[in-house]
Write a structure and sequence with these properties.
The chain has two domains: 265 residues, Tachylectin-2, Chain A, CATH 2.115.10; 191 residues, Sandwich (Jelly Rolls), CATH 2.60.120.200. The mean pLDDT is 96. By secondary structure, the protein is mainly beta. The strands form seven sheets. Strands 23, 25, 26, 27, 28, 29, 30, 31, 32, 33, 34 and 35 form a twelve-stranded antiparallel sheet that branches. It starts with 15 loop residues before the first strand and ends with a strand. The radius of gyration is 23 Å and the shape is globular. The chain is built from one helix and 35 strands. The structure holds (Z)-L-Arabinonhydroximo-1,4-lactone. (Z)-L-Arabinonhydroximo-1,4-lactone (6LW) binds next to strand 6, strand 14 and strand 19.
Length: 492
């Protein structure tokens, strides 16, 4: 692992981690995507395998066309207490609020939600005192006494600590007892370039809290570190008893001001303790213990399993009626709905882009409709290659502008479509973009014809806004489209 590598690449922000014996479990935000809240397992904090998605039923997660992109599910906290896993999250969309889910196996099934209507705000944390009292601490930073098994709140929020004077957005609180102190870890400075991690400590979970004189204990603001926006951390002991942070960061590319396209990713950083305060970094350091790589996520999916692997996510919902591997066994079948990728109801099945250079290919049968492969940031920012009606088209939507970039007639029958992302390794000048996204189609003899090569900056968080990164996958624009296989291949 080189110094700037994430431990979970691609859009996996707001990591929260807990340790149970030799096992670690980690969850992230999932916004408008379904299923929600990816759950990972690791033995070494470096290699993480996705074991499920906590919210995989509509009784747990209802995202409707009215749920804007970058709304939905924010910033979970995962804890293990009393023999159970506890997951507390906020749905920032209608009918949402603060919700608790429990499971005995983090791979699932997870319970239906217990709602905490008395808890306002985002980024809820759960911590238990020795006498079983449960504290829910939220962005701001305020604290409620709660019963997470019933959702009851006892009294109003108490303000605990608003972070460093003058710093914006004190958020992402996590409260822990370590040794003789209770530590209140927060993010501040906002989730953009000013992001940082700060901490305060006290003798009681209710405070008062004394800020660390060295705050922020970790920030890359104003540096030329390749990983930026570092913050929103959670503390965890390593297998050898040392302490570590999992946190989010981004890898901007291109010239000024830098564009990050993979969303906010999960990184690892070591922590040492000096005078009872954590000293954190460097981000991306390799731990000293033996690493356990575990099975790599296969790049290619032949859709032969009958169920989709947990890495596949859809926009807002995924119903068997619109998305199935049963209709044509060994193929993923999508039935279009709405106005395609511009529409919040688009039928889409994709994976987070996890490599700055990569190739995604699919064998597509669009005889009964139109669809193909899309690189999606949100409804207003996507590029796609679409087959249908005897041709292949490359389309781009950037904000209010929508255009057909290229089109070419193709023979009847299934086609292999290509998306290729090439990270810019050299900057042309200060305005150079982060990468190039190109689209092509293969002839039956395997020859590739590239139809278009587009500047990737328009599919970046800096351009689109919000909290998400790119997701690349299959969609149907009209009728029915079948995918025999999809192959996500790193080129880094
Ligand atoms: C999350 C907030 C943040 O609730 O971004 O980086 C928000 N931190 O804590 C959405 O991910």
């Amino acid at each position: 692992m080189s110094a700037a590598e994430p431990v979970i690449a691609g859009m996996h922000p707001d990591p929260s981690v807990c340790r149970v014996g030799e096992d670690y479990y980690l969850v992230c935000s999932s916004f408008e995507y379904f299923p929600g809240i990816p759950v990972f397992h690791s033995r070494d904090l470096v290699h993480w395998t996705q074991i499920g998605n906590a919210l995989d039923r509509t009784s747990q997660l209802l995202l409707t066309p009215e749920t804007p992109s970058s709304a939905g599910i924010y910033a979970p906290t995962l804890r293990h207490h009393d023999g159970r896993f506890w997951l507390i999250v906020t749905s920032v969309s209608h009918g949402g609020g603060t919700m608790v889910f429990t499971a005995t196996d983090p791979a699932g099934p997870w319970s239906d939600p217990v709602r905490l209507p008395g808890v306002g705000g985002i980024d809820p944390d759960l911590a238990w005192d020795d006498d079983g009292t449960c504290w829910c601490t939220v962005a701001g930073v305020g604290q409620y006494r709660v019963d997470p098994s019933t959702g009851e709140t006892f009294g109003e929020a108490r303000e605990l600590w608003s972070g460093t004077p003058g710093a914006k957005a004190p958020e992402a609180p996590h409260l822990y007892r370590i040794g003789d102190h209770w530590y209140l870890l927060i993010a501040e400075g906002g989730t953009e370039r000013g992001h940082g991690v700060s901490i305060a400590r006290g003798r009681s979970p209710q405070g008062p809290f004394e800020p660390c004189p060295a705050n922020p204990v970790l920030s890359h603001r104003g540096t030329d570190e390749p990983v930026q926006n570092t913050g929103h951390a959670d503390l965890v002991p390593g297998p050898d008893g040392s302490w570590w942070l999992v946190l989010l960061g981004v890898r901007p590319g291109g010239g000024t001001p830098g564009w990050h396209v993979l969303g906010r990713e999960t990184f690892l950083a070591p922590v040492s303790w000096v005078d009872g305060w954590p000293v954190a970094g460097p981000v991306g350091a390799t731990p000293p213990w033996p690493l356990h790589p575990g099975p790599a996520e296969p790049g290619r999916d032949d859709f032969d399993d009958g169920v989709l692997r947990p890495c596949w996510i859809s926009v807002r919902d995924r119903s068997e009626q619109h998305c199935t591997t049963r209709e044509r066994p060994g193929w993923l079948t999508l039935h279009a709905r709405g106005a395609g990728l511009d529409d919040p109801t688009v039928v889409f099945v994709g994976r987070r882009q996890q490599h700055r250079s990569c190739r995604v290919r699919a064998l597509v049968d669009a005889a009964a409709g139109s669809g193909g492969l899309a690189v999606r940031l949100d409804e207003e920012h996507h590029y796609e290659i679409e087959a249908g009606s005897g041709e292949v088209r490359v389309l781009a939507r950037i904000g209010p502008l929508r255009t057909v970039v290229a089109a070419r007639a193709v023979p009847a029958g299934p086609l292999v479509l290509h998306v290729r992302v090439d990270r810019a390794r050299e900057l042309r000048d200060a305005r150079s973009g982060p990468d190039t996204v190109s689209f092509g189609v293969e002839a039956s003899d395997g020859t590739l014809t590239v139809l278009a090569a587009l500047d990737g900056r328009y599919l970046s968080t800096e351009v689109a806004g919000g909290f998400t990164g790119r997701v690349i996958g299959a969609y149907a624009a009209t009728g029915t489209v079948h995918f025999d296989w999809i192959d996500h291949e790193p080129l880094d």
